[in-house]
């Protein structure tokens, strides 16, 4: 190793192959003296199948590619650590890594764009992923967030539709990695729940100057659970020590041409230079009794909890201090999953989160070639792993013992523990009729986008107007532009008329904004009308 005292690095060091000394060999460890000419009959004759080195070399090359991530394909990652400031969260969560200031938990973070393919440019208008794997003593915890605090849709069942609208169009795979196209704006105009995240997407937040200058958000309302089993709602926030900074659109376009690796390079170079990026983790806590005290639903991922209502409480610090050794082995093979939680952190019924909890493992089974990707070095927990799982492609451990099932009397299995270290799913009461209908408390779409717009400085507002004009101006179907304007008018007529002016279109009449339920109505969501099923 490199004298590293970090336990994750100590785990990885023996797996890191030193290519700077030693001999060239085959995969079987047989030394090779010549790798430039294949074995042939005579100097100009046919190549021989007998040349196992040539065959192995070419065969392995032929199999180098794996599927890129279906979203967030382009990313950059780094290792580091997280340390809580004090034990003050112990009242709310049993998670040790958040409450024991003596514990320095190793992390791996991957930043990403969402829509572009693996080779696309960094400085595009897009959301950025901000995914953190904490290798805690109680198992791996993944906080799989974004640099926006809100998402585009409310229910995970719409995710395939949304991504189909956002990604390059299927017939010609244009546009590569930009949001300006008919399918996106068609989707947006028809689905007003997208509007709040769309405001963020049209703002400077979608053009981060550096990954080191980005906020991160867990987005969903999650649940802390303390040692007594009491729950508290929680939203997670990352705040960059360097502050939030953006490029302007013209810079983005130029940089995308001159240095498409701009954000990736900046992260790498700053870590190599010892100028380690830092973030403060903060939480917004809402006692369960206050679940219905808001004029939106806490389970709706298209809403923020305004900080005036619930301040962000600082919790600890994360530092990224080490670049990976190998992009593919580490940054590409890392597998984040919202369902990777540890004791003290649990889910809520946010319907977006619930389907994410299905989706990540499912996609990784194909992306990483089978059920054993948790054995890959970057994914391997520091906590002990003892499952009763057997076999599968790419097994890297050697389970020993005769019997892999519980209550075995032969050896090889392990008892299920009953101590306080185990993960216990939060106990709560659920009831209701089976329905395919979203609660009325999710159906107000315009108030928070309006709040966002009205909190902008004149310069920021101008950037948003130009972004809308640029984006909508690229739509080939002119009706899509007017449909989108009809939504913008409901957010703010002045904003809509400025955009319309740039597009040379009339500002639509402010259509009727649906009657919106306010907080007292939220309590009715527990008993939705059974007749609509
Ligand atoms: C990948 C964030 C919603 C499915 C990712 C990644 C991030 C992320 C950061 C990249 C992980 C990495 O670096 O490896 C979010 C956030 C969401 C959201 C913050 C909303 C709050 C969803 C939903 C679904 C979904 C609703 C599906 C129903 C996926 C899939 C991947 C992915 C399949 C690729 C994972 C892989 O191949 O390893 N997401 N996502 N996401 N997300 Fe999401």
Automatic annotation (TrEMBL):
The active site is at residues 72, 146. Residues 25-414 form the Catalase core domain. It comes from the Bacteria. The keyword Aminoacyl-tRNA synthetase does not apply. It catalyses: 2 H2O2 = O2 + 2 H2O. GO terms for cellular component: cytosol. The keyword Oxidoreductase applies. Its cofactor is heme. One of its GO terms (biological process) is hydrogen peroxide catabolic process. It is an enzyme of class 1 (oxidoreductase). This is Catalase. It comes from Nocardia flavorosea.
């Amino acid at each position: 190793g490199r004298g590293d005292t970090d336990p994750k690095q100590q785990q990885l060091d023996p797996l890191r192959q030193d290519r700077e000394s030693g001999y060239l060999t085959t995969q079987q460890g047989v030394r090779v003296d010549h790798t430039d000419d294949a074995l042939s009959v005579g100097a100009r004759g046919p190549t021989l199948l007998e040349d196992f080195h040539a065959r192995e070399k070419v065969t392995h090359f032929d199999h180098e590619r794996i599927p890129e991530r279906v979203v967030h394909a382009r990313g950059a990652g780094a290792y580091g650590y997280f340390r809580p400031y004090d034990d003050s969260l112990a009242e709310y969560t049993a998670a040790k890594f958040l409450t024991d200031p003596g514990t320095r938990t190793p992390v791996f973070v991957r930043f990403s764009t969402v829509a572009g393919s693996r080779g696309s440019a960094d400085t595009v208008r897009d959301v950025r992923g901000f995914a953190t794997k904490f290798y805690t003593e109680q198992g791996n915890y993944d906080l799989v967030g974004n640099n926006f605090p809100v998402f585009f849709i409310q229910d995970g069942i719409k995710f395939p539709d949304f991504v189909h609208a956002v990604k390059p169009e299927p017939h010609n795979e244009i546009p590569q990695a930009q949001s300006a196209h008919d399918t996106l704006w068609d989707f947006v105009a028809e689905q007003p729940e997208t509007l709040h995240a769309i405001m963020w997407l049209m703002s400077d937040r979608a053009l981060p100057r550096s990954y080191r200058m980005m906020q991160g958000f867990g987005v969903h309302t999650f649940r802390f659970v303390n040692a007594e089993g009491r729950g508290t709602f929680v939203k997670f926030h990352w705040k960059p020590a360097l502050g939030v900074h953006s490029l302007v659109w013209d810079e983005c376009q130029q940089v995308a041409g001159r240095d498409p690796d701009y954000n990736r390079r900046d992260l790498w170079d700053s870590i190599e230079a010892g100028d380690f990026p830092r973030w403060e983790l903060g939480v917004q806590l809402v006692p369960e009794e206050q679940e219905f005290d808001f004029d939106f639903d806490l389970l709706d991922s298209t809403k923020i909890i305004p900080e005036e209502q619930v301040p962000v409480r600082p919790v600890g610090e994360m530092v990224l201090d080490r670049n990976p050794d190998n992009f593919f082995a580490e940054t590409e093979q890392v597998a984040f999953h919202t369902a990777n939680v540890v004791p003290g952190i649990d889910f809520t019924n946010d319907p977006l989160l619930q389907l994410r909890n299905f989706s990540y493992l499912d996609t990784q089974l194909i992306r990483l070639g089978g059920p054993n990707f948790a054995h890959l070095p970057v994914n391997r927990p520091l906590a002990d792993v003892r499952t009763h799982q057997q076999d599968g492609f790419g097994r890297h451990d050697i389970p020993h013992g005769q019997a892999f099932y519980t209550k075995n009397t032969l050896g090889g299995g392990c008892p299920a523990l009953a101590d306080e270290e185990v993960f216990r799913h939060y106990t709560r009461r659920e009831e209701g009729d089976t329905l395919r209908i979203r609660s009325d408390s999710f159906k107000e779409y315009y108030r928070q986008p309006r709040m966002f717009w009205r909190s902008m400085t004149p310069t920021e507002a101008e950037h948003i107007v130009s972004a809308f004009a640029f984006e909508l101006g690229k739509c080939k179907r002119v009706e899509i532009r007017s449909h989108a304007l009809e939504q913008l008018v409901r957010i703010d007529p002045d904003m809509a008329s400025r955009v319309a002016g740039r597009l040379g279109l009339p500002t639509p009449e402010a259509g009727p904004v649906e009657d919106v339920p306010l907080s007292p109505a939220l309590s009715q969501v527990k008993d939705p009308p059974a007749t609509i099923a």
